[in-house]
Amino acid sequence: MNERIQELAEQALQLVADEHTNGDESRLDTDSYYVKDLIQEKFAELIVRECANLFVDRRYMVLNPLEPFADERVRVLKEHDKDTVKKIKQHFGVEL
Asked: Domain extents for the chain?
């Protein structure tokens, strides 16, 4: 498994533990279908957020800051990308 995916899986587990057991993972019944569903849901949410953020980050890496009007292009892209990120998150039901 990709290292970043493993990190997100662990983060999802910790977030569910934080929400339901004050952060004590040992008290979390990971064999329970309910808890498994919560962890999977949180994991999916983290992946969607990460993908949406990567989309925005990669867009700005291709801009040449020495290019005339680059600052204006960045401002316009930021506004457009905010809408795109919002649409991606809404599509997957991730809270904004």
From this structure: 3-91
